[in-house]
Amino acid sequence: MSSEPSEKSLRRVQKLVDSLTKKSGTTTHPDDSVTEAVVRGLANNIDALGKPLCPCRFYPDKEAEVKHRTWICACDDMQIYKYCHCLLFVNEEGLPITEYLPEGHEGRTSYGLVRDPTPELGRPLCAKAEERERERKERPS
Ligand code: SF4
C-alpha cells in the first residue's frame, strides 16, 4: 500500500466510492485518513492487477483471487450484507453495518449489532447470503 497509485486508478476508485455510497445509503469514514488509505490500496490493486481487489485482506495468490471475484470491490460481503470490513462504507459514526451478517461472522464479533440506517437501499445480491456463508466457511480468505 506504500507505492503511489496512478491518477487514472484513483479517479476510477473515487467514482466507485461515489456511486456505492449513493446506492447503499452509506457514507465514507469520518476520519479521512481511513478512507484515503483504502482508496489508495484499491487504486494500487487496479494498477497491479487490473481490478479493485480489496486491500484489507491477505491473499496467498492475488491473481487467483481476482479470478474468484469475491473480494473485488464492491465485494460480496458489501453487496450481500452491506458490510465493509475496510470501513470505507460505514454509517455516520464510522461503524460498518453488521445487521445482516450471519452469526459468527467476524464483523459481528468485532462491532456487535450495528443497524442499517437505510434498509431500503443497497444489498443487490442479498439472495446469495446462503451461498456466501457456505463459501466463507469452506474458503476463508
Ligand atoms: S470490504 Fe468490500 S466494499 Fe469494503 S473496500 Fe473492501 S472490497 Fe470494497
Identify the notable features of this structure and list them briefly.
single chain, 141 residues, mainly alpha, Ferredoxin Thioredoxin Reductase, 6 helices, binds iron/sulfur cluster
What is the compact description of this entry?
Helices cover 46% and strands 0% of the residues. The protein has 141 residues and is an all-alpha fold.
Write structural notes for this entry.
The protein has six helices and no strands. The chain is 46% helix and 0% strand. Helix 1 (7-24) packs across helix 2 (32-49).
Largest sheet: none
Structural class: mainly alpha
For the record, what CATH class applies? Alpha Beta
Could you tell me the radius of gyration in angstroms? 14 Å
CATH architecture assignment name: Alpha-Beta Complex
The stretches of 5 or more residues where confidence is low (pLDDT under 50) are none
Strand content: under 5%
The ordered string of helix (H) and strand (E) elements is: HHHHHH
Provide the CATH superfamily: Ferredoxin thioredoxin reductase catalytic beta subunit
Mass-distribution shape: globular
List the helices and strands and how they pair.
Blueprint: H1 7-24, H2 32-49, H3 62-68, H4 76-81, H5 106-111, H6 129-138
Helix pairs in contact: 1-2
The structure holds iron/sulfur cluster (SF4).
Iron/sulfur cluster is lined by residues 38, 54, 56, 71, 73-75, 77-78, 84-86, 88-89.
